[in-house]
Amino acid sequence: MRTEANDMTSQTPRTPQEYEVLSGGGAENAELARRGISRRQVLRRGVGITLGIGGLESVVGMHSMLYPNLAGQFGSVIPLKAKTAYPAAEQKAFAIDQVGIFYESAAKSYIMHLKPGPETSLLMSGSHLDDALSAENWVVDSDGTYWLALYQVCVHLGCKVPFRNDCNSFKCPCHGSHYNVDGEYLDGPAPRSLDRFAMSFDKSGNVQVDTGVLNQRVERPDVGTRILQVPGVQCSAQ
Ligand code: FES
């Protein structure tokens, strides 16, 4: 470790007078003279160092703006709960935060966990279904259930869309856009289906949502592209 005592032994020995000057008025001049450096040179070096540090800070600041550290925050991969915290349900049995559909505020998302069965009507099959599921960010689990992470924002004008147990679907309170349990457009002014995030499971089997990857390309479905049957219930405005 470098200490003043080391300095004293490793450099040219200083006289007591030099120490006196260096620790009081004229200290700088005495030291500079000893090293053979002019005050102008020191000022130039100081300005250079200051500019260098300022430039470095600017680069770091710019990098932070362009590549903010979002670890664990919205815009990055959000770790959620174990799969078991999201029990699957058939389409007609969904109940918010109980079975089938769950709200996760940290990910600003609804987690759908759909179970096949007589109360779940998939309108496609085979490779046609596989392609549609892939294009719409569905995840097929090893037990045959389906997962999806839907962004909470209505694609009409941005209101938060609640899931309505009484409608077995999402219904926007602002202008009435209506979406199926998988976010597929049903009716209203929305130009497309709900947007969705990429989701996956970590090594421990916990659900995680990549809120940095948003799929905004799911169009209004037609009879040939709709994945799930429309809910057969009336949905009032509120
Ligand atoms: S913002 Fe949802 S329908 Fe207008």
Percentage of residues in DSSP E strands? 15-25%
Continuous helix count: 5
Assembly level: single chain
Number of strands: 12
CATH class of the largest domain: Mainly Beta
Any ligands, ions or cofactors bound here, and which? FE2/S2 (inorganic) cluster
Characterize the largest beta sheet: strand count, sense, and whether it forms a barrel. Answer: 8 strands, mixed
Computed CA radius of gyration, to the nearest angstrom: 32 Å
CATH topology of the largest domain, by name, is: Rieske Iron-sulfur Protein
Mean pLDDT: 82
Please tell me the total number of domains: 2
Derived from helix and strand composition plus strand pairing, the structural class reads alpha+beta
From N to C, what is the helix and strand string? HHHHEEEEHEEEEEEEE
Question: Low-confidence runs (pLDDT<50, min 5 residues)?
Answer: 1-34
Would you summarize the structure shown here?
By secondary structure, this protein is an alpha+beta fold. The chain has helices at residues 4-10, 16-23, 27-35, 39-66, 126-135, and strands at residues 77-82, 95-96, 100-104, 109-114, 139-140, 146-151, 163-164, 169-171, 178-179, 185-187, 196-201, 206-215. It is 26% helix and 22% strand.
Can you offer a commentary on this structure?
By secondary structure, this protein is an alpha+beta fold. The protein folds into 2 domains: 4-66, no CATH class; 77-215, Rieske Iron-sulfur Protein (3-layer Sandwich), CATH 2.102.10.10. It has 5 helices and 12 strands. The strands form 2 sheets. Strands 1, 2, 3, 4, 5, 6, 11 and 12 form an 8-stranded mixed beta sheet that branches. The protein has a 4-stranded antiparallel beta sheet with strand order 7-8-9-10, with no helix packed on it. The structure holds FE2/S2 (inorganic) cluster. The site of FE2/S2 (inorganic) cluster has 13 residues, from loops.
